[in-house]
Design brief:
It is a single chain. It is built from two helices and five strands. The chain has a five-stranded mixed sheet with strand order 1-2-3-4-5. It has one domain: Trna Endonuclease, Chain: A, domain 1, CATH 3.40.1350.10. It is globular and about 45 Å long. The chain starts with a helix and ends in a 5-residue tail after the last strand. Helix content is 27%, strand content 40%. With 129 residues, it is an alpha+beta fold.
Amino acid sequence: MRTNRSVVGRKGEDEACRYLAQLGHRILARNWRGGHLELDVITLTGSELHIVEVKSRVAPVMAEPQRNVGREKQRRMVAAAQAFLHGEGRKDLPADLEIVFDVMSVVFFGTGADYDIEYYPNAFIPLYT
């Protein structure tokens, strides 16, 4: 049985994909899983591969959904992106890809027909030390 949280998450990802497609993104994968790693949306624009974390909430929200993409979540996104690129995901992709990490916030109001989307391209750059 699907929980309310999973329904909101799925609906948020649907709206996020629609929004990204309107911006010219080609959706390559949704809810990609590699073992315990997961990526919400993977898109391609030119030679940029976008790894997109979608945060969906129902108003009123205590904090902006994108604030929930902290250092640990970023670390997991990078690990998942590496797994995607070293697995089946890499085939049919340009050789000179630039990998970017984006965040999208989708907040639904009332019955969910109205919503607000905020898109943060290049939300973070992984740091390697």
